[in-house]
Amino acid sequence: MGSAGEDQSHVDVLIVGAGPAGLMMATWLAKCGVKTRIVDKRGTKVFNGQADGLQCRTLEIFDSFGFGDRAWKEANHMLEICLWNPDSNGVLQRSARIADTIPGISRFQQVVLHQGRIERFFLDSLESCSDIRVERGVLPTKLELDESLVESPDAYPITVHLRHLSEAEATPTQTGTAANGSAIQDGLFRSNLTADDTAELTRASALDAKSNTEEVVKAKYMLGADGAHSWVRQQLGFTLEGESTDYIWGVLDIVPITNFPDIRMRCAIHSADSGSVMVIPRESKLVRLYIQLTTAAYNGGKRADRSKIDPDAILQAAQKIMAPYKISYRRLDWWTAYQIGQRVGTQFSAHERIFLAGDAVHTHSPKAGQGMNVSLQDSFNLGWKVASVVKGLADRSILKTYESERRKIAQDLIAFDHQFSRLFSGRPARDIMDEAGISMEVFKEAFEKGNMFASGIAVDYCASVIVAKETESNPVISTQELAPEIKLGKRIPSVKILSQADARPWHLQERLPSNGRWRVMVFAGDVTKPSQKEIIERLGAALDSKTSFLQRYKPAGAHYDSVIEVLTVHAAPRNQVDIFDFPEVFRPYDEIDGWDYEKIFVDDISYHEGHGRLYETFGINPEEGCLVVLRPDQYVSYVGRLDDYDAVDRFFSGFMVAQTAQ
Amino acid sequence: MGSAGEDQSHVDVLIVGAGPAGLMMATWLAKCGVKTRIVDKRGTKVFNGQADGLQCRTLEIFDSFGFGDRAWKEANHMLEICLWNPDSNGVLQRSARIADTIPGISRFQQVVLHQGRIERFFLDSLESCSDIRVERGVLPTKLELDESLVESPDAYPITVHLRHLSEAEATPTQTGTAANGSAIQDGLFRSNLTADDTAELTRASALDAKSNTEEVVKAKYMLGADGAHSWVRQQLGFTLEGESTDYIWGVLDIVPITNFPDIRMRCAIHSADSGSVMVIPRESKLVRLYIQLTTAAYNGGKRADRSKIDPDAILQAAQKIMAPYKISYRRLDWWTAYQIGQRVGTQFSAHERIFLAGDAVHTHSPKAGQGMNVSLQDSFNLGWKVASVVKGLADRSILKTYESERRKIAQDLIAFDHQFSRLFSGRPARDIMDEAGISMEVFKEAFEKGNMFASGIAVDYCASVIVAKETESNPVISTQELAPEIKLGKRIPSVKILSQADARPWHLQERLPSNGRWRVMVFAGDVTKPSQKEIIERLGAALDSKTSFLQRYKPAGAHYDSVIEVLTVHAAPRNQVDIFDFPEVFRPYDEIDGWDYEKIFVDDISYHEGHGRLYETFGINPEEGCLVVLRPDQYVSYVGRLDDYDAVDRFFSGFMVAQTAQ
């Protein structure tokens, strides 16, 4: 909560906005033990409607924070995309089936769950590991950044005034927020509340005792995750660049009563002349329909007459598009309407002190299910970097990679959405000569290509001080061919490995939780071969020396793996070695816990869950092995030889801060 | 809580004892909506120590109540058993490795988690689905059963006096309870508390306001799940029969500091002359050691001098057995000592009104990890039966199957434990001529055979009104050969199937949650074949008739699947049919929810999780199919032809009660 002076307090990081991007940031900082406040002007979290697609990469990230299983269990799983369009007689038919997630790219597949549940998982995670609590009904009113202090490590260059709202101010009439940020009055039915949200609702009616007061907060760093109309962005004078279009879409979340056979599949339905519908099956028997509104009244210009749009009008449009199938409903959970627009921010930070994330720097249409994912992943990229710098472990130079890495993603997203939306909104071509229409073959191909982007797995960060790709300036260059499938700049893929000590199978990524640690992955090869064993002995000696990077960057008194963790995966048969065959630095000793049994793994067959074949899958030669450095967010920094200790040392020297107490 | 008169209240079921067996019973009754109270004389639940092995069948059962994933995530997974014994020079060596769980028998494998967490999962489940709360510090003092009323459906033949203890009475000095029930003072270190137990501890300091009062409760049914010294059993005058032995064992739960390489495996270590150790690796870096105490002082007679037993003495015994490996510790979580004894109750119920479960009817040694599992499964067998009878859905005759089914299991358990304990406690044979010693080959074979029993999967219930095995008296006989691997009397095995409507893969058992429903599983075969389709149409018509068993046994106004649920798994290619190809009774219509998309499944390949091959695995001919009836606890009642509707109708007529309002 920040130790308060009279009306001024200090905090390391202040987050404005407690949607997914803000909560992700808070969770990272909580896991890393950074003093943080997070405020939101709304009186409660959201309970229904809103964004809801979860990419497989997002689920991997959730799993790294310990709640991937909750999302996986509660969500609706989407397995198949069905494309429907008119046959040669103009009658709607299913023309193709596509896997919704490309098989093999992740251990998770895309699922759907509404934003309120995602926020719940973050809130529970914050409660379980920190004192950070979302302060609701709190509005920032003034922001100052002292530019003379931005490069001083211990300074608090940011001053923010916060006003604590009264209850009435914090709980305005609920409105639907369109994807481009414009607020539209909607019908809101709280049919979908779950038990653990009840307490949240109760709390909302009794906001904090500071109601109607104002305070001043001094912060080292700040995140504006306050949505498309970002107040933080406005204070910084940054703008979004892009365009909007004429297309208006309605959204209905209903329990459908229909004889359309694919209503529980993700469907793209193009009618001959009445527009398109996208079907997104959801949890609790709900289905979300995105419905193109083609009636002239809605489309007279950039600002259509929205007062004419209501659930009945949207349903009628859907019925026309989906004919001859019937569709109606008795239960409506939420609805809204929006106009498509794609915009991206020119700058993602002010002096790497105040950052923007999520809708505050990119807006686009919701149909590809990307919005929440890209927003979450913005602050997933940023959180550990800010934590490392605040804690004095890393240099401020790593903060520049936030914009260089994430602005490109936002631009890719905008381009993807631009193409996808236009294909989706267009009328299907009647035949090959119909040039004004959209070819369904082109649409299907775009869908298939889009799936890779939409998975979140394709993200590939550029060369930087923390990604040792080949560039002119990088002092350390990787040897990618030692592990062709552990691609520099991308997240490490996951296969099953076994713990050497107890034979338990784990997915590799399960051993890479988000706790702020860098990982040195030692792919030791077949250590029953004397040559390989000797290499490992030498590497162990280098790592164990008093001046090794393991020692230099670890604060005095910190646990041996708190900054950089060494994990080993060897390729010898499991039953021919035990952990005591490895140098102690690979299985460190603690005087209370004994030897560490959780650091050494093997690529071998399991009793019940098959064989991960890691060396084969990643293309690593077991008679050579390799060393890989992973960032705290699972992205690959470096791939090199096991006997090139110096290169790894040089890599860390590029941005880590030696701990003087050493 | 029971609607109270002055000092007398009525309840459908009263449960005495809130350990695993009592909590399982309460959870069943909660899921079925039966008015229930559960009391326990202790002031809090347990927090460490105690039983901890979870069989794969127990995990399947937990999963059916919705918390299998919590146990699976928190538990330590044991994959391998290592046998250690002296080599020809008398030096300890690893002589064999065995899979801890037989591969393929379940989708879960045996894991370890302490009893306090299991109780937490049950308590959370009760809170989420009912008003039933454990009333702690409540002691029964008087029990009467009016035998003249035991056959009257609506009577309350049981009268119990309950005394509400003062705080001091309810929280005695914590003692370890030995497996044979004798209490032994122990050292208790609460190092292992988890966050969600903190509230429980707080609550314990403020027991209910009725402290030091007494009340009278009238109950229809009662369960004594009050442990080896069961007060309920004593009131009924029932006894346990069996024997105890001279062997004394010590138990240490420690974080070990050791160079023994298999400390994270389950190990059976036989020393040449110093006795045996069993190693059970646990969660939170803990390891449980069961250590045979051979010093004469402990073994002078049936009642050894336990005052000489403390953690140091037990550790010294372990060090002697495990030499030349070193073992010590800095953290001790819990310890106890016990003498092996095996006993089983002569009767499991009084007039099928008052039942006993768990340690109240069987005690044995803890080393096979069976105790909590068999206890839980006692009341898992009983709960739905009592609920069905209380709700007037089933005849009281089904209650007799509790004793006929569970007493045999208890006897098997005792026999298994008897053999296993003696093999484990014996000295290894020096050579083939050493007849006083135990052959390590015989021991390994016993271990391997024991694994099938210990999984809980082998349970095979005998013929009865609810298991249509061939007997002289049964009016309905199954045709087992239609599905040779869906064995009558055993739980149905599980393979992956796909939902027809959305292509999502599920494990079959995931579609069989514990909610009190009987299931008619229609294995419809290849419904694209006209002959098979015709059979399904005819079956649909029979099921849909006004007089079908689906209609007769459903209370007026109840949901269509609330008593008997029809689930279909067909064998046609998924993309050649949709749910509207099946008669409506297989995918019923609801005026608010539309058609039910969750009743029809297909045996086909999934996008990401392989092919379950159900028909092949279960031995069902897709050109014939079959119909299977499952009890609410997933055990197989009946297997028959799809065109023999009458046999199924006759089966249900044997014990179901027609709902007069029909």
UniProtKB/TrEMBL annotation, chains A, B:
Asked if the record carries the keyword Oxidoreductase, the reply is yes
User: Domain of life of the organism in this record?
Assistant: Eukaryota
Keywords in alphabetical order: FAD, Flavoprotein, Oxidoreductase
Q: Where is the FAD-binding domain?
A: 11-416
User: Record's CDD domains?
Assistant: PHOX_C (cd02979)
List each copy of the Phenol hydroxylase-like C-terminal dimerisation domain by range: 459-659
Q: Which InterPro entries match?
A: FAD-bd, FAD/NAD-bd_sf, Phe_hydrox_C_dim_dom, PHOX_C_sf, RIFMO-like, Thioredoxin-like_sf
Question: Hey, which family's this protein in?
Answer: Belongs to the PheA/TfdB FAD monooxygenase family.
Q: What is this protein called?
A: FAD binding domain-containing protein
Q: What organism does the UniProt record list as the source?
A: Aspergillus cavernicola
